[in-house]
What we know:
The chain is mainly α. The chain contains nine helices and no strands. Helices cover about 75% and strands about 0% of the residues. The longest helix is centred in the middle third of the chain and has 31 residues, at about 90-120.
Amino acid sequence: MPDFLDAQRYDLFGAFWVTVQLALYAAAGALTWGTLLAGLRVSPVPLLRAFAALYVHVVRNTPLTVIIVATSLALHQTMGATLGGGTAKETGFRLAVLGLAAYTATFVCESLRSGINSVPVGEAEAARSLGLTFPQVLRHVVLPQAFRAVVNPLATVLMSLTKNTTTAAAIGVGEAALLMKEMLENESHAVFAVFAVFAFGFVCITLPTGLLLGWISTRVAVRR
């Protein structure tokens, strides 16, 4: 067995497990915040629309590494926030999840907004004529159809999120990219082999996600 695959020296499975956890927690946060942002972007209140549009344009066009580092510097080092983490390792992980979720939510918002625009206006107007409020129309009529229409774009966003977890290494989170950096420094004679191992690991994570969401998309597709 090659030295760089020695489990006593390098915890490959542990590093990829951290990557999976980062992706799952950040995906949950991004879907929640992105859905709320999409609702704000189509809100009848101009101030809410302006806030959501400004947030999306600013955050989406800021490099993710800058957001991750800024989150650590502003929240942890400047304000002393730990987000409930008891150790530096836990705090770094939670800060990385927050940064990833805040960034990815902008792409979720825009994907979902395109799904909202695909829902016939007459359906929303009919719901309003029945006495439903704007939040109720979104919840019961528009969003269910919008989500069904954008499963494929959301799948792309979530797979990109999995790959973007590598930026967490910038604040010392022990995920796959940080371990790869360490292995490249120590195993310079096996650079291509190390790259191949980590590329295969990310394929094993992202490919099943894409296949699952692709299957879901065909099952729930809106037929008009």
